[in-house]
Amino acid sequence: MPSGIARAVIASVATCLIVQAAPSQTVGGDDLNAPSTALDIPADVTMFGKRDPNVRKATALVNGEVITETDIEQRLALVVLANGGKVSAEETDRLRLQVLRNLIDETLQIQEAAAKDIRVPKAELDENFARVAANFRYSPEGFAKYLSEHGSSERSIKRQIEGEVAWNRLLRREVQPFVNVSEDEVTAIMDRLKASKGKDEFHVGEIYLSATPETTQQVQANGEQIMEQIRKGGSFQAYARQYSEASTAAVGGDLGWVRPAQLPDALASAVQQLEVGQVVGPIPIPGGFSILYLVDKRQVLTADPRDSVLSLKQLAIDFPPGTTPAQAQQKANAFGEALSKLQGCGAVSELAKGLGATVVENDIVARNLPPQLQSVLLAMQVGEATPPFGSATEGVRALILCGRDDPQDAGSPSFDQIMSQMEEDRVNKRARTYLRDLRRDAVIDYN
């Protein structure tokens, strides 16, 4: 099984479907000070004791519909898989509570969709499940077996798919037709984009935790625990799906590309200090706390050098078993000296014969290379070679730049693209209010 499935199975369910979300914590939003969307689950809930997983005992009734302990444990197993199985006992207990909250929300969404005569056919669920399985090179049967072996089930993922698809269709029918964006608003956005050309923008992930004055300390402590788990290797996307109260939770907390001016001041300041791949938080903002993850950064409407397509040749020399670090360094030095005399890509094959090296050719987008190689290669001229790199166990390598196709300047998004994004943003804000109303009206009994 590829390691990616364990870390991405939760996020994959959303990305394999058509579920979309828009930024929730942008300046000017009408939802910053909204009350928490998390249900007020009693602190003394004790239904998570160690019981026979085959016993389907009710732990909550949502408008008469049963959520069993098996449902909770199987969904929890997906979260644990997404975090590589590295979840402490204390963290597991906290995740159980959050999983129950999510299952309650999911049940309310499916019930509301059904009340509006919106149902997801079994054939469509099977098709979407097969798509998720195929993404990770499994047949549906093999994927179902893998999930079962790790404490989850095909049924648990299909239930999650059903909730997301049904809710998305409900929003498209009951909310989206009543959301309007004027041409003047779109034109104003386009003008601001053009005026911002060359300025930094950031691809950001967010986990938003709402708080009231009474719950501030508790929510901050919860945010610090989430940060600790992410630093230990936990999946940001998985924690965003389980804990974030923003509309972007369904897509792993992905805010998309934003500029600092679109964010609250505290978040704008924090994101500009991050390096790609770093996480920061919990950061106090109006209405709660945010944890930010910097996925990438670029300049507005400006070509990114990392999008250049590089034509590369790789020279590789493998070391025999037992090579010491000193011997590896000596061979690397000799390799580097030979590379310094290289006269263009046409001489690579001859050099490889003299060194006993192998040659591999490939075209690759610069951003897909390790960061330390990106900066080196983008500063090189055609025909030049990188310094040798590698290890005593893996051998020594070097890349020779044989060609470079620079990207064109990024064009401004179209009028229709901007209008669509603004409409999605407003739909998602209304969706949060819709779900809060469903929670307030629901009859929920805890076992």
TrEMBL record:
Residues 1-21 form the signal peptide. One of its GO terms (molecular function) is peptidyl-prolyl cis-trans isomerase activity. It comes from the Bacteria. It holds the Pfam family Rotamase. InterPro entries: OMP_Chaperone_SurA, PPIase_dom_sf, PPIase_PpiC, SurA_N, Trigger_fact/SurA_dom_sf. Keywords: Chaperone, Isomerase, Periplasm, Rotamase, Signal. Residues 199-296 form the PpiC domain. This is Parvulin-like PPIase. It comes from Sphingobium lignivorans.
